[in-house]
Design a protein that fits this description.
mainly alpha; two-stranded antiparallel ribbon; 118 residues
């Protein structure tokens, strides 16, 4: 994997956390599988990251798009001038962010509110 800055690692961690909250709430009855995560992010997921197949595919897609980003330095996706996600994936990410963001803020995770605005 390419060299990741702390900001890029944090952006990916936030995305994985949002996908995990969404998956647990919406797909709890679906059998989960472990998701392969970059080495530098394993400190956040010591017990691993289990998602349903659909959410795991979305997380893998997001990682791949981030890895292949042509911009240097890589901006966070919300500040990017080009959008590399396909329309389908972009709408799924929006749905996940809206659902998970509200849940996390209501549970006291104000650090994600900070990430949303900046």
């Amino acid at each position: 994997m390419d060299q990741l800055t702390d900001q890029q690692i944090n952006d990916q961690k936030v995305l994985f956390d949002f996908i995990r909250v969404y998956c647990r709430a919406k797909h709890a009855s679906v059998e989960a599988a472990e998701v392969e995560i970059p080495e530098k992010m394993r400190r956040f997921y010591r017990k691993g990251l289990s998602l349903c197949p659909d959410c795991a595919a979305l997380a893998a897609y997001a990682l791949e798009k981030r890895r292949k980003c042509p911009l240097d330095p890589k901006p966070s996706c919300k500040h990017c001038r080009i959008h590399c996600y396909s329309r389908e994936y972009r709408s799924r990410i929006r749905e996940i962010m809206a659902f998970s963001g509200r849940r996390m803020i209501l549970r006291g995770r104000l650090d994600y509110l900070w990430h949303y605005f900046f």
